[in-house]
Write a structure and sequence with these properties.
The chain is of the alpha+beta class and 261 residues long. The chain has two domains: 15-116, Winged helix-like DNA-binding domain superfamily/Winged helix DNA-binding domain (Arc Repressor Mutant, subunit A); 121-256, GntR ligand-binding domain-like (Four Helix Bundle (Hemerythrin (Met), subunit A), Up-down Bundle), CATH 1.20.120. It has helices at 28-37, 51-67, 79-86, 90-102, 121-145, 148-167, 170-186, 191-202, 209-215, 217-233, 237-256, and strands at 15-17, 20-22, 76-77, 106-109, 113-116. A five-stranded antiparallel sheet has the order 2-1-3-5-4. The protein is elongated, with a radius of gyration of 19 Å. The chain starts with 14 loop residues before the first strand and ends in a 5-residue tail after the last helix.
Length: 261
């Protein structure tokens, strides 16, 4: 039995840290997942989802919670107790956590659970540099070939990003931002490149998002998506290069609450 595994309905602590329990005051990713699955008989197709699909949905929710900092770096989490929070069994949670371990989000600790990996400054610097090397020339290449209807679609995502930033919907912001950049790169038809860009983005975490929302700086970063689309509509590769470079550096600054030049 993993540490922190519930015995009946009395267990309330979703986090195990050493020998003590830590509690969440807010669990938007976990709560939203459970709400999405708490539907009536008319939505029985949810109950018919395969275990693979359920595992993927759990993984996405866990990943979003980690990226947003709801699941705390350095803390140890029990799959059975998180399963209770999701309203599912421990199995899809454990399987999702093992996938996250392969991506470097968590480390499995035998008979205890999964510890969220702490991301160091050096890690963020290295990832930012790799993103600049990969995404800048790739985005410029996309600007030369992307179809107007795809730009229209990306513009809708950019508007949703801007709205999420303005409303302080941090999980939605992170998910939409990732979707925007991955879909953009996917226009090159290079699956390995798209997967690598996605993996790098998933290995990063934004710090201090609440403060950034209050200060309006997250809104500034959201606006850059619209600026990028405008440059690409004009087939302005120089502007595209400048905007995506600034956006990646800006994001690196947001990670630690500093300006990047």
């Amino acid at each position: 039995m993993e540490q922190g595994e519930p015995r009946g309905s009395s267990v309330q602590c979703p986090v195990v840290h050493g020998s003590s329990c830590l509690s969440f005051s807010a669990q938007p990713a976990l709560t939203r997942f459970r709400a999405d699955n708490a539907r009536g008989p008319e939505s029985s197709h949810i109950a018919a989802l395969s275990s693979a699909n359920l595992r993927e949905r759990v993984r996405r929710a866990l990943e979003a919670a980690i990226v947003a900092g709801e699941l705390q770096p350095g803390a140890l989490y029990s799959a059975p107790v998180l399963g209770v929070r999701f309203g599912v069994s421990a199995t899809p949670v454990r399987e999702a956590m093992l996938e996250l371990a392969r991506d470097g989000f968590v480390v499995a600790e035998r008979n205890r659970g999964f510890r969220v990996v702490e991301v160091a400054e050096r890690d963020l610097d290295e990832i930012s540099k790799i993103r600049l090397l990969l995404e800048v020339p790739s985005t410029v290449e996309v600007a030369e070939v992307i179809e107007p209807d795809r730009l229209d679609h990306l513009s809708k995502i950019a508007s949703e990003i801007f709205l999420a930033a303005g409303e302080g919907q941090l999980i939605a912001y992170l998910d939409l931002d990732r979707s925007f950049h991955v879909e953009l790169i996917s226009r090159l038809g290079n699956d390995r490149l798209t997967d690598l860009v996605d993996r790098l983005r998933r290995q990063t975490r934004l710090f201090g998002l609440d403060q950034l929302v209050e200060s309006g700086r997250l809104h500034e970063s959201a606006q850059e998506h619209h600026d990028l689309i405008a440059a690409m509509r004009a087939r302005d590769t120089a502007a595209t290069e400048s905007i995506i470079t600034s956006h990646i550096k800006h994001t690196r600054g947001l990670w630690v609450g500093r300006e990047e030049t």
